[in-house]
Fold this protein.
Amino acid sequence: MLKNGVAMTANGKSDKREAFTGLMTYGTLGIEMGVSLAIGLGIGYVIDRWLNTSPVFTIIFMIFGLVAGMRRLYALWKRIEKEDERDNDK
C-alpha cells in the first residue's frame, strides 16, 4: 500500500521508519561496546596508578568492560529473536 509515495506495511508503519529504527538499534551497539570497554579500561588504569600495580587492574577491568558489552549484545539478540517470533506468529 502506498501513502504519499511511501510504502506502508500492514500495521501502518512506513518501511523507512522501520529501516531507521533498525539502523539506530544496531548502530548504537558498537558505541555501547566501545564505551563499556573504555570505562573498564579507565577504571582499571586509575586503580593501577593509585596502587602502583601496573597492568593488573587494567586487564581485569578491561575484561569486565568486554563482558558488559557482550551481555548487552546478548540482550539485544534475545529481544530481536522475541520480536521475530512475535512477527512470525501474526
Observations:
- The chain has a mean pLDDT of 83.
- Helices lie at 15-51, 55-89.
- The CA atoms of residues 64 and 81 lie 26 Å apart.
